Amino acid sequence: MTQGRSQLSQSLDELQQTLAALPQIDEVMGQVIDRIAGCLTSGCKVLACGNGGSAADAGHLTTELVCRFCDDRDPYPAICLNALG
Prior knowledge:
- It is a single chain.
- By secondary structure, the protein is mainly α.
- It has one domain (about 25-85).
- It is about 60% helix and about 5% strand.
């Protein structure tokens, strides 16, 4: 087997593992969404932070909440803690 073929096989194996994990990820994401929605509907503020790539994700999340992702609506209260300074 060539190195390129071996790498392709490894990538396909990793993809299958990722796809097999999606039902569990879907359940966890549902819980996260419910928590954030509960926070916002009760008048609380979403605080997000991260390190490295997760810091960028935290910034994107809070920006979408504050800047009206899809609909014309009032902004949701959210702060990216790692963007302060």
